[in-house]
Design a protein that fits this description.
InterPro entries: Dimeric_a/b-barrel, YCII. This protein has about 160 residues and is of the alpha+beta class. It has helices spanning about 1-25, 30-35, 60-80, 110-115, 120-125, 145-150, and strands spanning about 45-55, 85-90, 100-105, 130-140. It has a four-stranded antiparallel sheet.
């Protein structure tokens, strides 16, 4: 019995050690992928973050607000399809800065990001305003979008 337990523990320990060593292995560098994503030597690149805030316009008409939000979502999809936006989403809690949501745009140009955010019907209507910030993050960030459709049953 003791031998059986000892052997089981030995196998378990060897398996855990192998799994830990496997995790430590560095992925092979892929120059072609790095170049295609615009990565620097650290695998990073510049983006622009747009923080959406509550705008000055209050829309009381629920039908009109629904149309604006539908246009907002359609515009996000269009920008994502064009490779301009890599992250978009609302904040789930109120915050002291009154941020409502954010976009991460695939550009280092604040001016270009502003042109793109101004295509949003909710921004145009004044429901949302925005702040723009340069940001430095993983050049692989846009790759998650191609998998999003595989894991979502519905679009909002």
């Amino acid at each position: 019995m003791k031998l059986k337990i000892y052997l089981s523990l030995t196998v378990l320990l060897a398996t855990l050690t192998f799994a830990q060593e496997k995790k430590k292995e560095k992925a092979k560098f892929n120059q072609e992928l790095a170049t295609s994503l615009g990565a620097d030597q650290y695998g990073m690149k510049a983006y622009t973050i747009v923080m959406l805030t509550t705008g000055s316009t209050k829309v009381e008409d629920k039908t009109k607000m629904g149309e604006l939000m539908k246009g907002h979502m359609t515009n996000i999809g269009k920008l994502a399809d064009e490779g301009k936006i890599v992250v978009a989403g609302p904040f789930l809690e109120k915050n002291k800065e009154n941020y409502r949501g954010m976009f991460i745009f695939n550009t280092k140009s604040k001016e270009e990001a502003e042109q793109w955010v101004k295509t949003d019907p909710a921004v145009q209507a004044g429901v949302f305003s925005y702040e723009i910030f340069p940001w430095y993050g993983s050049a692989a960030l846009p790759l998650y979008l191609k998998h999003h459709e595989e894991i979502s049953k519905e679009n909002p």
